[in-house]
TrEMBL record:
Cofactor, how bound (note): Binds 1 Mg(2+) ion per subunit. The magnesium is bound as Mg-PRPP.
Gene3D superfamilies for this protein: 3.40.50.2020
Name of the coding gene: upp
Protein's name in the database: Uracil phosphoribosyltransferase
Keywords, alphabetical: Allosteric enzyme, Glycosyltransferase, GTP-binding, Magnesium, Nucleotide-binding, Transferase
Organism the protein comes from: Salinirubrum litoreum
Keyword Amino-acid biosynthesis found: no
Function: Catalyzes the conversion of uracil and 5-phospho-alpha-D-ribose 1-diphosphate (PRPP) to UMP and diphosphate.
Domain Phosphoribosyltransferase: 12-224
A GO biological process held by the record: UMP salvage
Length: 225
């Protein structure tokens, strides 16, 4: 298993995840390579969730030559992936390679960057659209957003995801880059969630951007600036 417990979060430690994150951190990595990098990170993280958190069962299988025993992953039909628009879209594309039959939810969430952070280090979050599947107690729920900065977006998203739904078997908050503030905020407000990230960065700047981070993930993936 290449998921390492860091106390406040679990790290995806697969070498290709670190390699890919380094590539997309680079200011010279342009839109297409940036977006492909997020897709790749989503796929690797999905495989790591399967390897680290899902069980296998023995099944008998008939090859062209003989009957033998193999293993299959349990619960692949009981996966829910929540796409936090906009930056999570390529990340989710990668996750879907690991979980092609996942139920999918979409939440459109944006930070009000003009309003800025309040004294508690939170942004006002605008939610424009919410469409979620029914969640069951058997489900593994993965809420994906490549950036976990102040945690304001994720906490607002999780309010919707957990509202009037049963507790799933597992609830993962998956990000590529996290700031300590965001991990602490989400961890405090949603102790039932497992926080999974490729990197925990140093700090947030005065505008709420992760340092060193990778800049504005949405703008870089969608070429809006
Ligand atoms: O932890 P937080 O401080 O809430 O910041 C993280 C959020 O900020 C970014 O979204 P943004 O509001 O820029 O929207 P976008 O994805 O449409 O660019 C990012 O994709 C996260 O959703
Ligand atoms: O560093 C950050 C913080 C929030 N959203 C981003 O895209 N990047
Ligand atoms: Mg953005």
């Amino acid at each position: 298993m290449a998921i390492e417990d860091r106390g406040e979060a679990y790290l995806v430690t697969h070498a290709l995840a670190k390699h890919t994150l380094t590539k997309i951190r680079d200011v010279n990595t342009a839109q297409v390579a940036f977006r492909k990098g997020l897709v790749k990170l989503g796929r690797i993280a999905g495989y790591e969730i399967i390897d680290g958190a899902m069980e296998t069962e023995y099944v008998s299988v008939e090859t062209p030559l003989a009957e033998t025993t193999g293993e299959q992953v349990r619960g692949l039909d009981d996966v829910v992936i929540i796409n936090v628009l906009r930056a999570a879209t390529p990340f989710v594309e990668g996750l879907l390679k690991a979980f092609p039959r996942a139920k999918q939810g979409v939440i459109s969430a944006g930070r009000d960057e003009e309003a800025g952070m309040n004294d508690d280090g939170e942004f006002p979050i605008t939610i424009d659209y919410v469409k979620l599947p029914e969640i069951t107690e058997d489900d593994t729920v993965i809420v994906a957003d490549p950036m976990l900065a102040t945690g304001s977006t994720m906490c607002t998203v999780l309010d919707h995801v957990t509202d009037e739904q049963p507790d799933p078997e597992d609830l993962f908050v998956l990000s590529a880059v996290s700031a300590p503030d965001g991990l602490l905020r989400v961890g405090e407000q949603f102790p039932q969630a497992d926080l999974l990230t490729v990197a925990i960065d140093d700090h947030l700047d005065d505008d709420g951007f992760i340092v060193p981070g990778l800049g504005d993930a949405g703008d870089r993936a969608f070429r809006t600036k």
